[in-house]
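Hi support team,

I'm filing this because I wasn't sure whether my run with heme C finished correctly. The job status page said complete, but I'd like someone to confirm that the output block is well-formed before I use it downstream. Pasting the exact inputs I used:
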Amino acid sequence: MQQADRFPRIPPAARAAALLSTLALSACEPTNQGYAPDQPVVYSHAVHAGSMKIPCQYCHVAAEQSRFAGIPPAQVCLNCHAQVQKDHPEVLKVKRAVETGTPIRWVRVHRLPDFVTFDHSAHVARGVACQTCHGPVETMGRVEQFAPLTMGWCLDCHRRSWPAAREREAVALLNAPSKGPDGQPYPPGEAPETRANRLTDCAVCHH
Ligand code: HEC
Ligand code: HEC
Ligand code: HEC
Ligand code: HEC
Ligand code: HEC
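And here is everything the job wrote out:
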């Protein structure tokens, strides 16, 4: 795993202690469930993803390959709106943004704290639907935060049996060296380089 490589010489116990002290300094935030800010351009998922059934990944192209799903550049809207509803006041805002080269400043709806790592591709490529985490976006006139995005919410799902993750753990345990370079046996499951992260390990989401 990448996180193991990033702190190669720090023993896991010290890393966990450092993590806990960092986290203790950050205040516990209330959940933003239901947060649905005004947007600079009135854009409806109910119209585009609902009635018109444009696939989510037509606009959120990176969701399956990268950490971020991404927000489409204004140019993507003009793929259609160069012709369709081209004099609609909201569409005119989009046109102006493209002509002047000023990106639309969409207000971010979902935001995890900086000390949490999340990766869209790990989920989307495993077949977890957008709606599992974002709710019925295709019915939303305005996007709102559907899930609480708390640690407990992440863990509830990570505790379920995900076959690929279980298989990785089993293979890693089989291949783990039983002794370290100093000849001392590793405690069970602690051999450093080959140990796969369990989905509930702190380092999966905090590193
Ligand atoms: C035609 C383009 C388009 C399509 C299709 C589309 N979206 Fe979006 N999406 C956007 C734009 C633009 C925004 C930013 C403005 C907003 O929040 O409404 C956005 C925002 C979002 C957000 C909130 C992002 C944040 O700020 O946290 C989520 C979640 C989302 N879309 C999910 C989906 C899902 C799920 C689908 C399919 C059911 C989908 N989108 C289809 C264009 C699109
Ligand atoms: C694949 C084509 C397509 C794309 C891409 C697209 N739209 Fe649309 N949009 C339409 C069509 C068609 C309508 C008219 C729907 C209707 O009248 O029922 C529409 C309607 C609208 C309207 C009129 C009001 C409403 O909600 O009905 C606005 C505003 C709008 N789109 C904004 C956007 C923005 C902003 C983007 C880029 C994030 C975008 N559209 C991307 C096809 C598209
Ligand atoms: C396992 C839960 C989960 C799934 C599945 C998921 N998302 Fe997300 N999404 C999140 C979380 C959590 C965030 C906030 C990430 C952050 O703040 O770093 C987010 C953020 C976003 C954003 C804001 C911009 C960005 O790239 O971070 C968009 C857009 C988005 N998701 C769209 C989608 C779409 C489209 C799909 C399906 C193809 C999808 N998401 C699947 C949990 C999920
Ligand atoms: C609905 C179920 C679900 C939810 C909710 C969910 N996850 Fe996951 N997560 C998964 C699955 C499935 C995988 C991929 C497991 C595999 O590779 O077999 C995964 C993988 C990951 C990975 C990559 C792990 C690795 O070693 O490759 C990270 C990081 C992660 N999740 C973070 C989060 C965070 C942070 C949240 C909460 C904001 C969250 N997840 C919410 C199901 C979920
Ligand atoms: C599947 C992902 C995931 C795993 C695994 C995970 N966390 Fe978290 N953790 C989160 C998320 C998401 C948040 C932010 C929650 C929020 O803002 O409400 C968080 C927040 C925290 C906080 C800050 C508490 C607060 O309310 O501000 C601490 C401390 C913490 N985690 C410690 C741990 C420890 C220790 C472990 C291992 C036993 C762990 N986490 C495992 C996802 C995870």
